[in-house]
Write a structure and sequence with these properties.
Elements lengths: L7 H5 L10 E3 L7 E2 L5 E11 L10 H19 L2 E11 L4 H17 L3 E9 L3 E11 L14 E4 L5 H9 L8 H8 L5 H7 L3 E6 L4 H12 L2 E5 L7 H10 L4 H4 L6 E5 L12 E7 L3 E6 L2 E3 L11
Parallel strand pairs: 4-5, 9-12
Antiparallel strand pairs: 1-2, 3-6, 4-6, 7-10, 7-11, 8-10, 9-11, 12-13
Bound molecules: magnesium ion.
């Protein structure tokens, strides 16, 4: 079955005239064409989601379309790039029109929210696998890298941690009151695009938390050649996540679970007064390598684990 003959991308993804000035040619030729002003750079990222590895087979296709784009926009946000265009590659076991309609709606609603042009795509038959390549622009030399953290910088997160991880626990059968927000965090994360743009002039390093704070902050520490001290009492958690930690004693879950899509960034002392509202200081960059967590005043050994897929 040749899926391409159905021209699914054209049919379902409400292709309209590109809205971005960078898009010179969208879907319809062998390639799309992008054009950048001389003083701009292109930031490019790609993410693949595989059924049974990255999402449950019974997940809402609308939420899946949203999340596939959101996780890619989150990577652009982490660089301080403004999203302008995406390509989409779909591998589908069958053509399920109801599924495609809901999936494309979830995807395009978020694309429209950020005025991102869908400039290309491909469809093939096979086990359900979804890939997005996202492109963003930023002024030359302003990208937020993982390598810029300096001793003395404060470490910040853009919002509460662990809701995505708790959402996964709930999906796996854990029972907790008012877990709706955690499920929404897992299935419909919101990319911190505007914050990423704001941080270009403020942060020394930045990453999005897709694989858990410990692992992702670890990337900043490795690339910057520094260490970190974190203070448990300063790390923001939702009530549901706090309740989970209390009920189970599994207090490391919100630090090691994936799917938060908050930004973690570092800021020098001189820029502390420019921290956008809602962001919370959770620790400090230090010269001693590694990650030290202080909980109730004690240094706690962290069993650092990254994101574990549910399968
Ligand atoms: Mg990332």
């Amino acid at each position: 079955m040749a899926l391409a003959e159905f021209d699914l991308i054209q049919r379902y993804f409400a292709i309209h005239q590109p809205v971005r000035s960078t898009t010179r040619l969208g879907i319809g030729d062998d390639c799309a064409l992008l054009e950048l002003p001389l003083d701009q750079q292109l930031a490019i990222t790609a993410d693949t989601m595989v059924e049974g590895v990255h999402f449950f087979p019974d997940v809402s296709p609308h939420a899946l379309g949203h999340k596939l784009l959101a996780v890619n926009l989150s990577d652009l946000a982490a660089m301080g790039a403004e999203p302008v265009a995406v390509t989409l590659a779909l591998t589908l076991p069958t053509i399920d029109h109801e599924w495609l309609s809901a999936f494309s709606t979830g995807f395009m609603e978020l694309a429209n929210q950020f005025q991102v042009d869908l400039i290309g795509g491909d469809t093939t038959q096979g086990p359900l696998t979804l890939t997005v390549q996202a492109m963003g622009v930023l002024p030359k030399g302003t990208a937020l890298l993982r390598s810029g953290a300096k001793v003395g910088d404060g470490i910040f997160v853009s919002g509460p941690l662990g809701d995505g991880g708790l959402g996964l626990k709930i999906r796996q059968g854990f029972l907790i009151e008012s877990g709706h927000a955690a499920l929404a965090a897992l299935e419909r994360p919101w990319p911190q695009v505007e914050l990423g743009l704001e941080l270009r002039k403020i942060a020394t390093a930045c990453i999005d938390i897709s694989d858990g704070l410990i692992q992702d902050l670890g990337h900043i520490l490795n690339k910057s050649g520094v260490g970190a001290s974190l203070f448990w009492e300063q790390i923001p958690f939702s009530k549901a996540v706090s309740d989970y930690c209390e009920q189970t004693g599994d207090w490391q879950m919100p630090l090691s679970a994936g799917d938060d899509y908050q930004l973690c960034f570092t800021v020098s002392e001189s820029n502390r007064d420019k921290i956008p509202s809602g962001c919370v200081c959770i620790g400090q960059i230090v010269s001693l390598p590694g990650l030290s967590l202080f909980k109730e005043g004690d240094l706690v050994h962290l069993q650092a684990k990254g994101y574990e897929h549910f399968s």
